Amino acid sequence: MTERDGRHDARTAGPKRRLAAILHADVVGFSRLMGEDEVGTHARLIAARAVFETAIDGHGGRVVGTAGDATLAEFASVGEALAAALEFQARLAETNADLPEARRLAFRIGINLGEVIVDGEDIFGDGVNVAARIEGLAEPGGIAVSGAVADQLRQYRGVVFADLGWQRLKNVPAPVRVYAVRPAIGAGRAPAVRRWRSRPRQFRRWLGAALVGLVVLGGLAAHQLGAFRSTPAGSEAPVAARLATGKPTIAVLPFREPGGTADSVYFADGVTEDVISELGRFSGLLVLSWSAVAPYRDAAAPLDELSRELGVRYVVSGTIRRSGEALRVSVQLTDAVPGVLLWSERYDVALADLFAVQDAITRQVVGEVAGSVTRLEQARVLERPTQDLGAYDLVLRGRALLRSVERQDNFSARALFEAALASDSGYADAHVGLATSEVNDVKYGWTEWPADSLERAKGHVEQAVASDPTNPHAHAVRAEVLRLEGDLEAARRASDRAIALNPNSALSQATRGGILVYAGMPEPAIDALELALRLDPHPDASWVVNLAMAYYLVGRHADVVALFDRFGGGFEEEPAQYLLLAAAHGQLGETAAATAALHRLRRVSPFFDAGVYAGNLAEPAHRQVLLEGLEKAGLD
User: Over the stretch 277-312, which tens digit does the pLDDT of each residue have?
Assistant: First the structure.
């Protein structure tokens, strides 16, 4: 056998593995668009796909395959993959500008760097699966990437990578860090794209930063739920207008820890979250949740730009430095509309005085922003959670782990909360953390004995309330436990109490909304769930499904479709969304879209029982109207 023959045998010996940049894309709301205009939508998809394939080929990639509205491609370089995605989104934005809004196609794109199995022309493996799941987290018209991609492209000009946190992806065993690709503020128009050839750290300048900015920022606005009562379905009012409530709006940006390590970021994040929580107790303020501000941890944009993106007037920012037992906290409050610094302060204290610093920050913000705060609220916010700083540190570490929504992290968090209680048995937040970990076991199917987990959760909640009756988190978790046990009336009372203590808790508002919709009160449920989604633009799938159910029950069928167009890509494996989409399309007489939704439902959950699902609704009339819509959709 010759050397050449040997090479030929190696090439044809079967599947091989290699590292690749994988790009996955599909169309937002494709089923609805096909239902409304099948021929026109298909023609626009073919045209858009031709543009996409040109961009992919022009950046050294290859289209692996297409299925329906989805496109899978691979590249040898993550820089080339991102450049192709940016070019396509920019060109699509130009095309969409000439079309009526109802006829525009919006793509989500996900990019991952990982190992793939190559078999002929096809690629398989976790690397492909992760790219597809990340794509579902992208904003309509936007791009999301894995942490592996972001780490390679930190110096990529014209864009920033907004941290969306650790995400638990369907059928992916470990959580994945995900970033949204957004235009750098003030990037302007970049030079024409040139291929990278020689220097490893010199990446492609991207095409038309200003055009891409319109696409991605438009996607960000779409990702944050509008006030549907005042905004027609499908329209995109400015974020600030959609957040308008008559209350001062405020965002506490993640405190930075200069010189800190990846292992120590939990401390600054935890302090930020606590300041948000304490400010949230004041009914005179609208305070964005931790989830809303977390992506801006490393943002370098001016505060006025960030305030416009977040839809708030006031911005709190700061830094934390630790050295042994010494602590330095610098904090600023800015009125971003005129760009005026209202106050700034630096605190040099012992670590043991951290809670006093948090209290001082809260008092200053409230004093400047909402002067008319009741004495009851003022006294409530200044209560010290524990005397033990070691226990506090353990709780912060536990909370950081809980955010990943991953089984092993949930177990590790539980051990930290137990250690905190060993130091301070009356520490309410540690009991709340333990209760939350037990509830997670039930909600995500991580236990074979859910009744036992709920019983333990209930015990910790009761101890938390006994230690601190004004702890809003304790009452919110109590409401969730009672809901899971089926006691909706008691759950509603607990959620009302949590909201009375902290009206700015997205979790409490969402829990209350879910309880109300299934208890037969969809109108007040809408109020609570819409507020939850304003406070937290990265919601749990159940929050969106519950709001869609409430919209459906009051006859707002078009809003059901619009809601899932905005949020559905983030949880495409959730069967209830397709059930509600089918029913809404059925009521609207959109037969093709209803059929497409039922097809997705059967594919995602072949044995999903609509009758059993409808049985969760307390009101017989509500069960009937849901089944009526499904019958119109063609469900047997």
Answer: 767 766 566 788 777 787 777 666 676 677 777 778
Domain interval for residue 247: 240-381
**Is 116 in contact with 125 (CB distance < 8 Å)?**
yes
Helix residue ranges per DSSP H, 224-353: 239-243, 265-280, 290-293, 303-310
Q: Is 364 exposed, middle or buried (0-12, 13-18, 19+ CB in 10 A)?
A: middle
pLDDT category of residue 224 using cuts at 50, 70 and 90: very low
- 51 with 161, same domain? yes
Contact 162, 295 (CB under 8 A): yes
> Exposed/middle/buried for 323, CB within 10 Å: 0-12, 13-18, 19+?
exposed
Helix axes 450-467, 472-485, angle to 10 degrees: 150
52 & 135 share domain: yes
Q: Which residues pair with 141 in a beta bridge?
A: none
- Quick one: 146 and 46 in the same domain? yes
Per-residue burial over 83-97, b if 16 or more Cβ lie within 10 Å, else e, is: bbbbbbbbbbbeebe
The 10s digit of each residue's pLDDT in 75-98 is 988 999 999 999 999 999 888 887
Same domain, 185 and 253: no
Q: What does residue 172 show for φ and ψ, rounded to 5 degrees?
A: -115, 115
Length of the chain equals: 636
> 200 and 65, same structural domain?
yes
Give 199's DSSP letter: -
Q: Which residue among 357, 381, 405 closes a domain?
A: 381
Place of tokens 């996409």: 52
Find where tokens 């056998």 sit: 1
| Whether residue 215 is found in the same domain as residue 268 | no
Residue 216 CA, chain-centre distance (Å), reads: 16
Sign of the dihedral defined by the CA atoms of residues 526, 531, 537, 542, in that order: negative
CA angle 125, 129, 132 (to 5 degrees): 145
66 and 116 both lie in a single domain: yes
Q: Confirm if 144 and 110 have CB atoms less than 8 A apart.
A: yes
- Whether 435 is covered by a domain: the verdict is no
What sign for the dihedral angle of Cα 226, 228, 230, 235? positive
- Cα–chain center distance at 83: 25
Which residue, among 191, 217, 185, has the nearest Cα to 205 in the 3D structure?
Answer: 191
- 3-state per-residue secondary structure call for 80-117: HHHHHHHHHHHHHHHHHCCCCHHHCCCEEEEEEEEEEE
Could you report the per-residue pLDDT of 513-522, keeping only the tens digit for each?
999 998 999 9
- Answer for the pair 212, 206: CB distance below 8 angstroms, yes or no: yes
